[in-house]
Specification:
With 201 residues, the protein is of the alpha+beta class. Helix content is 23%, strand content 34%.
């Protein structure tokens, strides 16, 4: 049973990165999906499966309280960055460094109390940048690229040892559950790919 009313939009697994001018491409960080809800002075953090992790990541919690917008819901990836700037899932999973975990925010569902989920992705990205315009330590706007660059960006991500890409259609709504307008392509050499394969056996 979800404790949060905001069930996340989940990408469909794909074999190749979509190309064309209508796609946005985001680096997939190896972390935990997290919905961050703020209602005035109250902040709650929910996992993809609806578990309340508010007390787990104080850096994200404190950052959310420093955002000037008092009512918002953002979607992102909770990550623990290693010295090389790449997310370290094993260290994240160990729970030994919970106070250092940060959020890469890639979508906004609510801003200033307004539900934005039926806006196209490009407008939600604009609103996300506005909500997080004042930089706060602990929450960062996840960068993205647009258009034909997707396959080349995926090759570079693999060379850098990153998990892969999530490509999203520029006009896509934010809908609960799996979306065919969000495509996730994983680096087959990354440990996250092996973890998924083990889970399927």
């Amino acid at each position: 049973m979800f404790k949060s009313p905001f069930e996340p939009c989940v990408p469909t697994r794909g074999a190749k990165v979509p190309t064309g001018p209508d796609w946005l491409h985001e680096i997939k960080h190896d972390g935990y999906r997290l919905i961050v809800e703020r209602e005035d002075k109250r902040v709650r953090l929910f996992t993809r499966n609806g578990h309340d992790w508010t007390s787990r990541y104080p850096r994200i919690l404190e950052a959310a309280l420093r955002v000037r917008t008092a009512r918002f819901v953002i979607d992102g990836e909770a990550v623990l960055l290693g010295a090389d700037g790449v997310s370290d899932f094993n260290a994240l999973h160990s729970r030994k460094h919970d106070d250092a975990v940060q959020l890469y925010a890639f979508d906004v569902l609510v801003a200033d109390g307004d539900d934005l989920r039926k806006l196209p992705l490009t407008l939600r990205k604009t609103n996300l940048a506005r909500v997080l315009a004042r930089r706060v330590d602990g929450i960062h706007v996840a960068p993205f690229e647009q258009g034909e660059v997707g396959p080349e960006l995926f090759r570079h991500a693999c060379k850098l040892g990153l998990e892969g890409l999530v490509s999203k259609h520029r006009d896509s709504w934010y809908r609960a559950g799996r979306s065919e307008q969000w495509i996730k392509v994983k680096n087959r050499q990354h440990p996250a790919f092996s973890r998924v394969m083990e889970a399927l056996r």
